[in-house]
Amino acid sequence: MCCLVARYLLAIAALAFAYSLAQALRHAHRMRGGADPISAPSARLFDFIADQVLAYLLMSALSAAIPITNRMRTAVINNFTDATAAAISMAFLAFVALALSATVSGYKLSRQMYM
């Protein structure tokens, strides 16, 4: 059970990292003067939805990993439990960053002019 939860946390963290890296590269390309590969209205909607989904997935992985890690740490504290606790902390920080990004994306989406 604990290995499945650790794998789930790692998979979601890797997915969030890949999405954030793709977003950073997309914005860097756009800032250099290149065309955005996604049209502006679609990009705002995609950013908002992807930020929301990944933030909820991160919170889901955190809520699955915390009880098992706490239970394991009451029995024994070793490198695995320390690494799992560190992964939970980093995933929570990633959740906070994605939640802020979702707030900004939601604001941009709400300011969009519809024609």
UniProtKB/TrEMBL annotation:
Subunit structure: Homodimer and heterodimers.
Subcellular location, record wording: Cell membrane
Record-annotated Casparian strip membrane protein domain positions: 7-97
Claim: Cell membrane is one of the keywords in the record: yes
Keyword Acyltransferase: no
Membrane topology (UniProt): Multi-pass membrane protein
Primary location group: membrane
Chain segments annotated as transmembrane: 6-25, 45-66, 86-107
Keywords linked to the UniProt accession: Cell membrane, Membrane, Transmembrane, Transmembrane helix
Entry protein name: CASP-like protein
Family: Belongs to the Casparian strip membrane proteins (CASP) family.
A GO cellular component entry from the record: plasma membrane
